[in-house]
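RETRY 2/3 - previous attempt timed out on the joint model. Re-submitting the same 971-residue input unchanged.
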Amino acid sequence: MKYNQSRIRNFSVIAHIDHGKSTLCDRILELTKAVEPREMKAQLLDSMDLERERGITIKLNAVTVSYTALDGNEYILNLIDTPGHVDFTYEVSRSLAACEGAVLVVDATQGVEAQTLANMYLAVDNDLTIVPVINKIDLPSASVNMVKEEITTRIGLDGDESVLVSAKTGENIREVLEKIVTTIPAPSGDNDAPLKALIFDSYYDSYRGVVVLIRIKEGHVKVGDTIHFMKTNCDFLVTELGLRTPKEVPVDELYCGEVGYLCAQIKDIHDVGVGDTITLKENPALLPLPGYRKINPMVYCGIYPSDSKKYEDLKDALGKLSLNDASLKREAETSQALGFGFRCGFLGLLHMDVIQERLEREFDLDLILTAPSVIYKIYLTDGSIIMLDNPSKMPEPTLIKKIEEPYVTAQIMTPKDYLGDIMELCREKRGIHKNLEYFDDTRMILTYDIPLNEIIFNFFDKLKSYTKGYASFDYELADYRESNLAKMDILLNGHPVDALSSIVYKPSAFNKGQKIVSKLKTVIPRQQFEIPVQAAINGKVIARCDIKAVRKDVLAKCYGGDITRKKKLLEKQKEGKKRMKSIGAVDVPQEAFMSILSIDEDNN
Amino acid sequence: MQHIDFSAKSLYVHIPFCKKICPYCDFIKVLENDKFIEPYLKELLKDISFFIENNFKFKTIYIGGGTPSILSVNFLEQLLLNLNKILDNDAEFTIECNPESLTENKLKIFKKYGVNRISIGLQTFNKNLLKILDRDFEIDYFDLIKLVKKYIKNINVDFIYGLPNQTLEILKEDLDNFIKLDINHVSLYSLQVEENTLFYNSGIKEIDSDESAKMYNFILDFLRKHGFNRYEVSNFAKKGNESKHNLTYWRNEKYYGIGVGASGYINNIRYRNLGNLSKYIKGLREKDEEILNLDDERKYFLITNLRLEEGFDIETYNKKFKKDFLNDYKNEIEFLLLAKAIAINNNLIKCTDYGLLTLNLVLEKFI
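RETRY 2/3 succeeded.
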């Protein structure tokens, strides 16, 4: 592949979740022979097991391929796959900043959905050229004309220009590549200018140190150069440069407009800020690239090792994960109930889920997570303000002047038949109705302001179940608003359990407290005494449920041979108990701490 | 062939043959088959000869099954004659019998060779439940016990409770009838549905633990009122009639076990003979062995002794295992005392009535 800046095309693929972008990427890799058929596995760019299993893309991933177009020229295409879930909007915006164009995939059977719009707006913000693609045209339920119409009227692109493809069968994939080559501009920038390379991702490799993924915006870099990170102010010697095709192909030099990787024996990932600009030590650029806006976590929860001896392991594991995930925030904290652990911040619940699973799977940790919380703004009587991410740390009520909670503006797109159900759900979730408009003849877009806290507890699941999966939604943080909130404590056998505290909307506290204590009754095993489970606000019990004592657990017969079996059973039972937390003489299993999350499911 | 442990004062002999297979039984057993019985006995006698040659004198011998009483008079005579040679004076010599196969001739043979205790599986008097258990013999239990008493005074009967459709009323009838039998030992087991039993395969479930506790407490009250002491979780006797053999298990004492599926505890080994009949007949003696370290021995000590009404002496425990029980388990003991699951008196620790019902939770603290 010979360098020719005018024959480079850098693009992302964006879509609503499940509209088939990863499959489309697979087809592009196949068609450009980047991957031998025998090496091809579904969703090749989704390299984490977790991604492939769940069929979602979490981390962005970049690949360089070459394509000989119908004009006879060979083009270098840099493809950056993006996640589709609302939690990962940040990753999408990162990948878009490294591109000149975006392929917008719309499912021919679903049409334009909430995240199609959200991702498209991000692309427009980044001044990208958009190539609309209508996917899944092989399905009988595909309505291509309707979707074309939507693309025209809703997005403002020419729907008739859309490429009609089936990523599944491979139909018309070449058309997509031709459209990329002909409509997306070649990267601008001067190959002889001082180096400006945008860091859009990084990961740690135990042999080479940090591997940095870069897009050269100006100038060029070669092996042996001393580079300078403009924000972190560090210098390194470049030891390796290369392209990912997706196999790594080392090169001596990366030129203006190219996307590739860089190694420089960087030991500490914190020296590499995603969004930072790399320049050369000699002849440096004057100003860095704009970079990315700082990402703030929306949801916090406590993560503790079940076995308190594993605290250091958890610390290391979180450290390693945060190497690749700038959005994961963590801070050591202590809980009376759970011991030493971390308060971690996430972009959303899926992000939290993914981190939990990676910790358990990749680091073999056994974890207890507390129920997630948003960040509350507490105005104290002395005039100070605290940002509270842990309900158990709530100040005494007498010290509090007012509490504000974060609201999001949610856009819900739904077939109009479900309008009533969704409005009911939003009302239940304390939503404030802002707007209602027709999207097309059959679908509506509802706009609500809803407390974020209500969104994280089952909103999405309920929305899906109320609308048989037809509704889609997207949200963004709006502002903080004063709410009638209070801390609800849970007492086990009379002892308050800090890890079970939550902040609740007072008018529904009684109802919620009742649900939590009933739920805890089902997850906490019966023991040799009756255990009262109480929910209390400001020391006043608002709900109670008793876990009755065990009446009989002994096996009746125990002869010679049974004794050995008995010992094994008891040893196993003891092992199981070790995984529980002992709180006020009560053995509490891990799932109890997350039970607040699932209380609403029991109603469905 | 066998390890030697002269401190073992008890011997268990397993007879794995049955006329039919009870739907709840998970012991090692096969259907009665003349082709196997004779060679099996021959092999058993070989095992017994080891004890004869080494001059063992057992304080207790227990022949269990299966169904030992299924053996013919001739075979029984051969077996008992040899076991008699390794029986100490004043020893307890028990044989398990099935109501169906127990005859006066067999009783005479038992007596002749020193069998002085008999254990009969009655399970229940209730006709409907006996049908469920596939044990609806045409036998009057009162007549049977009367006959047994002519030869052997020391009698135990086994009952099962917590059977499908069994009510407290049916249980009470069983207990009333038991009292009428006028014998001095009874074992009552709650139904355990074990894998590889007909009950398990047909989806029968054990009764709810609260229900089971209710029945158990009913039994306990009833038998205490009638002068029986519970000396172990499931065993009740009038004073002086406790089973010495079974007490060796629950006092964690040494014993040998011979025959397929039998288990034993000698030196620092707990073993279980494998259940493969044809291998046994060929003279092969395969077993699973668990070699015990001191902590294993300690665990077994607790698992067994805490089943006993009398509990155990803390000093004995401390000396044996070089431990300080009250100090090692300070918090656990405090917890269990608060839960009223254990009682400590003059250095003796025992489970309370509630503690015996929730023994697993008690033991878990010390394991």
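The longest helix of chain A spans residues 560-578. Closing ticket.
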